[in-house]
Amino acid sequence: MSSSKKRYAVVGVGGRSGMYTRAVTGSHAEFSELVGLCDTNQARMDLRNTELPEGVGPVPTYAAEDFDRMVAETTPDTVIVTSMDVTHSDYIIRAMELGCDVITEKPM
Question: Is residue 1 part of a domain?
Fold first, then answer.
């Protein structure tokens, strides 16, 4: 992968996250790289990995309580937050504290 690619991690890999992972690994793959998935449900992360285009992934997966470790190990430029609404602010604030940009589907 080219170091000029923007690195993305996704926290919350339910249905809505698919539009982001498809964009990062599909239509924007020339400029983007998916580097990590984080969720409370390992089976959902495993499924998302199977849905990635050929030649992409699998990307590392992390339990929700390992969010900080995911950021440290995968060094994303941007964290995409598509977790349950009640957890959005926790992940948004923590990602910014760790030096990441954030994309969120909810207005702030």
Answer: no
